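Record 1 of the preview.
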Amino acid sequence: MQRPSARRSRSQRVSSRPVRYFLLDRVTELVPGERARGVKCVTLTDETLHDHFPDHPILPGCLVLEGLAQLAGLLVEATFDKDRTAPTVRRALLVGVRQAKFHGMAVPGDRLEYVATLGSVLDGAAEAKVEAKSEGERVARAELTFVLKEVPTVRVHEQRRALYALWTRDLDPPPVLR
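->
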């Protein structure tokens, strides 16, 4: 008799692994309430490129958009987290994507430059315009909407703090983000 894991197809075994997409390598500028800039270096070690597409690897447009959302989400959280004594921390959750356009492909060797500019802000929600460029050429753009929600788990906050510290470590001074 085969073990249960041996009976599953290769695609089932691969898709059952947890996958984390950190699609932002570094934040190069963070001005809460205004804008953020960051970079993503596309490399052949990016796991998604192995199947998308064999012999013609490109970073899927939806993952470029996710990288832009990660930068914009950081900007939104930095903008709203002014009261460091507040007992709860709210996290930016992406709830809307409008006017998404893909103008080019991101391929191994590209250095994507991300820009997020804060738009309208309400209590508990914000919009951001985002754009990705490679060597000055536009790759993607969109308008993103976020809501801020309390996430009642310590683990999420620990992971976000560690990730934000890594992304912003070269900023002078590095921001204190909860």
